[in-house]
Amino acid sequence: MTEQTLYVTDLDGTLLDRNSRVSPFSIRTINALVDQGMNFTYATARSLVSASKVTEGLSTKIPVIAYNGAFIFQPSTGEILCREDFTQEERRHAVQILDRYGVSPLVYSFIGGAESVSWIPAYENDGVRRYLSKRKGDRRFRAAQDADALYAGEMFYFTCIGEREELQPVYDAFSGDSRYRCTLQQELYCSEYWLEIMPAAASKYKAIQKLKEMRHCERVISFGDSINDLPMFEISDESYAVANAVEECKAAATGIIGSNNEDGVAKWLLQKMTEGQSPCHKR
User: Fold this and answer.
1) 100: number of CA atoms within 13 Å, CB side?
2) Whether residue 106 sits in one domain with residue 33
3) Which of 34, 49, 195, 254 is deepest in the core (most CB within 10 A)?
């Protein structure tokens, strides 16, 4: 009798290299293991659109987790399998807090059934411009001229980019409210900070729990690098921090593997295979 194992990796800073790509070696290695039956997926703060672009060529046969656990998608079709959302009151209160502190966010929402990302160009800072420059041609993005346009539709996620001193009071307001989950961390390879606000039920922990049930898996092994991966580590039977991970992540992990620029995840999986312990199942 064998136990099915679900393997889940973060993307940025973990599976993706410094150029925000999955290396050819990692693609070949992981795809070969997926072909052998490995249950492999990713859990990311990115959207499905953004994640699909940076993981091009990687075999993702099973559902993936996006927006830090707010959504589970079937990547081949874009079908939403699970979605955590704000209530109308939670949306209204979130907007009030952001307005109170004078922070203009990127707003992720569904407008007329279409996924949209709205922002006000007049309030762009260097961090927002850098973010937008990496996503040219993304049809989800819509420039808003005022607050009414910015906060249109069914909002499900907010991202604020700026200096820590600017964002810390906003983080304190949301993190003390049980209706929300909020993370504040420095952007990978950049100086600015990202504040992300989502429904309380949205987390990598809960999304992996649901996916584990969908796939009838008994065990979870995960890979990460940042504080938003700590909930993923909590639900995992084994968790591995890449060498470039933050100290909190390393302290919570079962072990430390090679860095994201050294194909740490793929090499760990390959080592298990060459040792005779199939990464597809755990006896």
Assistant:
1) 12
2) no
3) 195
Domain with 185, as residue range(s), is 88-199
pLDDT in tens, the chain (283 residues): 356 999 999 999 999 999 999 999 999 999 999 999 999 999 999 999 999 999 999 998 899 999 999 999 999 999 999 999 999 999 999 999 999 999 999 999 999 999 999 999 999 999 999 999 988 888 999 999 999 999 999 999 999 999 999 999 999 999 999 999 999 988 877 889 999 999 999 999 999 999 999 999 999 999 999 999 999 999 999 999 999 999 999 999 999 999 999 999 999 999 987 775 555 544 3
Q: Are strands 71-74 and 79-83 parallel, antiparallel or unpaired?
A: antiparallel
Domain boundary among 199, 219, 238: 199
Is there a single domain that holds both residue 76 and residue 215?
A: yes
Number of domains in the chain: 2
Distance from C-alpha of 247 to C-alpha of 259, rounded to nearest angstrom:
14
Q: What is the CATH number of the domain that holds 100?
A: 3.30.1240.10
d(CA 172, CA 115): 28
Both structure tokens of 264: 């740490």
Q: Which residues pair with 97 in a beta bridge?
A: none
